[in-house]
Specification:
The complex is a heterodimer of chains A (299) and B (308). Chain A has 299 residues and is mostly helical. Chain A has helices at 2-8, 11-26, 33-57, 61-64, 79-87, 90-121, 126-136, 143-156, 162-186, 191-198, 203-214, 216-232, 235-240, 249-252, 255-258, 264-297. Chain A contains 16 helices and no strands. In chain A, helix 1 (2-8) packs across helix 9 (162-186) and helix 10 runs antiparallel to helix 11 (203-214). Chain B is an all-alpha fold and 308 residues long. Chain B is 73% helix and 0% strand. In chain B, helix 5 (82-114) crosses helix 9, helix 9 runs antiparallel to helix 12 and helix 12 (228-243) packs antiparallel against helix 15. The longest helix of chain B is centred in the N-terminal third of the chain and has 33 residues, at 82-114. The relative contact order of chain B is 0.12. The chains are: A mainly alpha (299), B mainly alpha (308). The interface between A and B is large, with 113 and 100 residues.
Chain lengths: 299, 308
């Protein structure tokens, strides 16, 4: 029960509850400036590495070698971006990252919501119940445990490429996503589905027109986590993809560790281009990201 | 799987009388089609490699060609291998230190972020931000900070241990890995603590205020004891994740200096090149058993809260 109420709690509801509580806690809502100042100072721990990335990226190579991260770019230069674009073949890396991530997001949402709907609505059937625990078991299998065999198998069947990486990203995200979807579907009222069935709707139509639209908030959460995990992953693409020209953006950054190790402005421009898409997505989807972490941990 | 299961269910339902069927309706064929692709792919991508890995761990395979079963040879060799022992000692030690650091910082931040403060939404958004940045990329950024910027700070302030790069110091390189891992892992622990603090009923605080409890007293006597369950969950989840450390180590030290910061995951991956394929499969199997024990602990802790 707790899980269902937790899962169906939207960030908005949490915010309302919180506001009510803080008003009630001690009458006035006078903010404490001391705590605010301390927290603002703590944000430096987050901002300093990001500021360093930003300022280094816009420096010239000559200026960047001094290692002074707080100095502003003088002169302001986009030369780092121009070179990074060429050195990493950014358009190709970006396209491959987008491909892997898109397949992962769509694949995870579709497969996990299909499976979860079938499981949640047939819980009294042993086959579906056991399938649920079977899928859940993968939560306890970290990638390093399976890596040696998976690299071998993907190589044997011609999947040592971005397609294989995306497939494995979907598979490793399944447990978590099926768990979230199943809990969510159990919290949905069945009456609507039943009346649609009485009107002659097939299971597919019920899923397509009733269940899937109602699951939208959970699909958003699952999609964002699939996106972040896939976009940022280094371990799987670096081991699975055999052809280095087919690597995703995070893996491509390693060229600055070996060949162009003193062109710091180029390296940082490249890092910035690799991390920006995830930051942008986060800025627009914060509330789902924040809600998703809580739901995943306190299931 | 569905094709064998579906007819069986149907025949059983046909044999049962009406009332029974109403209380236990048979599963619609479409539901099997919804589940089947996932089960097949999952079996091929996860279960098959797992079985293959465990089987090969009992052999002398080098990754290709012929192999023979060698019983427990690999496992026995593992326990007396200093490189393996060192990687486990490093990984477990690193995970313990990191999990403690992450939870102390996350708990303090959560208390601050749920207090009456200005710009609460913006501050929370900033503290969650590190979670969405690629581990390898931020590790490269920190790599530069530790090897180029921090030594300058050390020279300016005259702190001799900081004057050379921490990454090149065999005794201190692990500290950099703890710092960057914590930087990235604090947000999710923080969000769980915030949810925990918000789940404490306001009435408890009101009663305490009326009895004249100071805010510090409310923190130590109400918030912290009521968060105990969340602390345990965060510790177990964190420890489990940190055991898999790889990306950030590759970006910072790549296992060095020497092999002083080589994690278990990195050791397993040496099986690709070192010729000890089956040997590292056995290592992976041991590693899996450790993950399994932690998972069982986590499930036990979640029981009571869980819907399943």
């Amino acid at each position: 029960m707790t899980a269902q109420t937790l899962v169906t709690t939207t960030p908005a509801q949490v915010a309302v509850r919180r506001r009510r509580r803080f008003l009630g806690r001690s009458g006035g809502d006078r903010p404490t400036w001391g705590v605010t100042v301390v927290l603002v100072l703590c944000t430096l721990a987050v901002f300093v590495p990001l500021y360093a990335t930003l300022s280094m990226a816009f420096k010239t190579t000559a200026q960047s070698v001094d290692g002074k991260i707080f100095s502003l770019p003088a002169p302001f230069s986009i030369d780092g971006f121009v070179q990074a674009w060429k050195l990493t073949n950014f358009p190709r890396g970006f396209a491959i990252s987008v491909f892997v991530t898109a397949v992962t997001v769509v694949g995870t949402v579709v497969l996990a919501s299909f499976a979860a709907y079938a499981i949640a609505r047939n819980w009294d059937h042993r086959f579906f119940r056991w399938s649920f625990f079977y899928l859940l078991a993968a939560m306890f299998l970290p990638f390093p445990v399976l890596a040696l065999s998976q690299v071998k198998l993907t190589g044997m069947v011609g999947l040592a490429n971005p397609v294989g990486v995306a497939l494995l990203h979907v598979m490793f995200g399944l447990s978590f996503s099926v768990l979230l979807f199943t809990a969510f579907i159990r919290g949905l009222p069945e009456e609507l589905e039943e009346s649609a069935r009485l009107d002659g709707a097939t299971t597919w139509m019920v899923y397509r027109h009733i269940v899937f639209p109602m699951m939208a908030p959970m699909s958003a959460t699952v999609a964002i986590f699939a996106f972040l995990a896939s976009w940022n992953d280094f371990m799987m693409p670096s081991l699975i993809t055999a052809d280095s020209t087919l690597q995703t953006l995070p893996v491509l950054q390693n060229i600055f560790q070996t060949q162009f190790s003193s062109n710091y402005n180029v390296a940082f421009a490249s890092y910035l281009m690799a991390m920006t898409p995830a930051i942008v997505v986060y800025l627009f989807t914060q509330r789902w990201v924040m809600a998703g972490v809580t739901q995943g941990a306190i299931k | 799987m569905a094709t064998t299961a579906a007819p069986r269910t149907r025949s059983r339902d046909d044999a049962t009388p009406g009332p029974m069927r109403a209380s236990h309706p048979r599963a619609n064929r479409t539901f099997y089609l919804f589940l089947l692709p996932t089960l097949v792919l999952f079996t091929l991508c996860i279960t098959l490699p797992a079985i293959m890995g465990i089987t090969l761990s009992f052999t002398n395979s080098v990754g290709f060609g012929e192999w023979q079963f060698t019983g427990l040879t690999n496992y026995l060799a593992l326990f007396s291998d200093p490189a393996i022992r060192a990687s486990y000692a490093f990984t477990i030690g690193f995970a313990l230190v990191t999990v403690v650091l992450v939870n102390i910082v996350a708990l303090l931040l959560a208390v601050g972020l749920t207090a009456k403060i200005r710009a609460k939404v913006a501050l929370r958004a900033v503290f969650v931000l590190p979670m969405v940045i690629s581990g390898i990329v931020i590790a490269y950024v920190f790599n530069f900070l530790f090897s180029n910027s921090l030594p300058q700070v050390g020279q300016t302030l005259g702190i001799s241990s900081l004057e050379t790069s921490l990454l090149a110091n065999p005794n201190l390189a692990w500290v950099t890995i703890v710092i960057v891992t914590a930087w990235q892992a604090i947000p999710s622990a923080l969000l769980i603590y915030i949810a925990g603090i918000l789940s404490i009923p306001g009435e408890v605080y009101e009663a305490a205020s009326m009895d004249g409890a100071s805010s510090l007293r409310r923190l130590s006597s109400i918030t912290l004891p009521l968060l105990a369950g969340y602390v345990v969950i965060n510790m177990v989840i964190g420890f489990k994740n940190f055991l898999n450390a790889y990306d950030i180590i590759v970006g910072l030290t790549n296992g060095g200096p020497g092999t002083s910061t080589r994690s278990v995951a990195m050791t397993i991956f040496t099986g690709f090149t070192g010729g000890d394929y089956a040997y590292q499969m056995a290592n992976a199997t041991i590693f899996f058993l450790i993950a399994l024990v932690l998972a069982v602990i986590q499930l036990r802790l979640n029981r009571g809260r869980s819907a399943f």
